[in-house]
Amino acid sequence: MMTLETERRSLVLPVERRADGDGKGNTVAGYAVVFDSEADIGGYFREKVARGAFTESLKTSDVLAYFDHDRGRVLGRSSAGTLRLTEDDKGLAVEIDLPDTTDGRDVRELIDRGDISGMSFGFIVTRQEWDETVDPPTRTIHAVELREVSIVSEPAYGDTSIALRSRDAARQEQREHPAKRRVDARRAAMEQRFRRI
Questions:
Q1: Closest CA to 109 of 28, 4, 21
Q2: For position 71, what pLDDT does the model report?
Q3: Global pTM?
Q4: Which DSSP state fits 79?
Q5: Which residues pair with residue 22 across a beta bridge?
Q6: Are 38 and 47 contacting, i.e. CB atoms less than 8 angstroms apart?
Q7: Which residues does the UniProt record annotate as the domain Prohead serine protease (predicted)?
């Protein structure tokens, strides 16, 4: 049995600060994930997050918001109401009420200056699907346990080695269960014909 490890993915999309009546707005918003958008993971495989991947996790997880994934730089927390996460048609929307701390003020200033370029999220995959009929293989993430979201200064896809171990485990399962491999291949072929790919 494979040990589940936390992976991180980043998205380069604008993070915005929402001003309130006095123009000092302390709420920042953006997207940590855009659904069904394929990303190249180090040239090893393609990956996308399916709609609904966060549904169960958002019901139960107490998620923290960090600056640059640093656990010592907390910006918000879902159980405290200072971090709000919602799945919408686009992806995983994030709103953080920045604290009146050095990190909170720094993040606000960096966003205003345009130095912050994205958001990221830390997760454990709980349900996934690999399509080995294409090159490079494609991983579709159907469900995750969301651990954290971060405002990041340099968005990058990290922890590729963890995802590669997940791919290797899926391949090993296919070798051990050839009947399942044939069913999966037929299912992928039918899906491709249906979508006229």
A1: 28
A2: 93
A3: 0.72
A4: G
A5: none
A6: yes
A7: 16-171
Q: Which helix (H) or strand (E) is 38 found in, with range?
A: none
Which contiguous run of DSSP H or E holds residue 178? helix 178-194
- Running along the chain, 197 residues long, what does each successive block of 10 average in pLDDT? 61 63 70 87 87 95 93 96 95 92 91 84 91 91 94 62 50 65 59 56
In the DSSP assignment, the letter for residue 179 is H
d(CA 48, CA 187): 18
Centroid of chain to Cα 19: 26
pLDDT of residue 40: 83
- 43's torsion region: left (phi>0), alpha (psi -120 to 50) or beta? left
Model pLDDT, residue 103: 94
- Distance between CA 42 and CA 158 in Å, rounded? 9
Q: Closest by alpha carbon to 157, among 73, 37, 72, 75?
A: 37
Q: Angle at Cα 91 formed by Cα 50 and Cα 27, nearest 5°?
A: 150
Q: Say what the pLDDT of residue 1 is.
A: 45
Q: What's the DSSP call for residue 23?
A: S
* Angstrom distance (rounded) from CA 5 to CA 68: 19
**Residue 44 burial class via C-beta count within 10 angstroms: exposed 0-12, middle 13-18, buried 19 and up:** middle
DSSP category for residue 105: H
